[in-house]
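Long-time lurker. I teach an intro course on protein structure, and each term I like to show students one example going from raw sequence to a predicted 3D structure in token notation. This year I'd like something fresh instead of my usual example. Would anyone be willing to generate the tokens for the chain below so I can use it in lecture? Attribution to the forum is fine with me.
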Amino acid sequence: MKAILVGIWNRQIGKETARESIRELMDLVSAVGGKSLGYILQNRSSPDVKYYVGAGKAEELKDIAKGTGADTVVFDDFLTPSQIRNLEKVIGKTVLDRTDLVIEIFSRRAKSREAKLQVELARLTHQLSRLYGKGKLLSRLGGGIGTRGPGEQEAEIRKRLIKKRIYQIKEELEEIKKRRRHQRKRREGKGIVKVALVGYTNAGKSTLLEALTGRQTFTADMLFATLDTKTSARPITNQVKVLFTDTVGFIKKLPPELIESFKATLEEVTTADILLHVVDISDNRWLDYIKTVQSVLKELSADNKPVLYVLNKADRLVGSPLEMKDLPHRAFVEGKAVVISAKKRWGISELLKEIKNLCQEEACLPI
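-- Reply from a regular --
Happy to contribute to a lecture. Here you go:
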């Protein structure tokens, strides 16, 4: 894939915010093996209903794609089926939106049966909304009033098949959800504290889980390196054991299909006693990412949970654990925060101490 990226900015979405979102879109393109040839940001009060960027800009994109050799144009937003159809007709290249890329990445990263089912559900739900994209053009071939053309008939058949498969996946995911609840109930009991790790994708949650519990996990410097939920235990006193659960990373403009599909996994967040909000403070967009995660937690009705901010990747900013105390990042966070490096294992003992203190304050357990 050789792609031109497109976004808009206006009074509500500042130019710098839009530019940062485009940079993230470049990472998404790279994650699917593509190459970003450049980007265009249009100052527009609202997306054009027909072409998103307007007819004139669509024609301009056609010339840019031809001149650069791009085979794909990726939009940093959600496009309607008609917008995609109209844009592809004008530009003559494949048109994708942010949802297409994120679902494709999730599809490649999914390893467990549950994750694969969740991604398939998201993809089918997304496809269903676009089902009539090209079928309508074919449906005109049928002729008279009250008849259906081959395109419409084909679309109806596909629609029924997709709905049937969606129903099957939801049934299977519900069974998995029941098993997880049963497992959770068996794990719960006196002396158990449930702690969920949440955060923006690539914040270092899996590395932190390994640092806290010793459990070997796949870690990599990439978006959505892991999608599968993992739970590991660690005692913090003779009477108290903490169950740490890693969850899927969040991202700006996370497609609603994925939030819905991964609700079984994200249920671990809603049942947790404490949330560890892991943040990559080496990224200059870290404060924006905190807001994004907070927004997703609100969607999950988990924004009222006790939160401990884990300001991770300090090793990229300082050369030793002693220098971490001089970092100013804690002052910018509303709430309790600990600066650590999960990779170097700096600050882990302080983190465990803060978890214990927070649990005592919140009366999770009589520690």
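Some talking points for your students: The first strand starts at residue 2 and ends at 9. Residues 180 and 367 are 27 Å apart (CA to CA).
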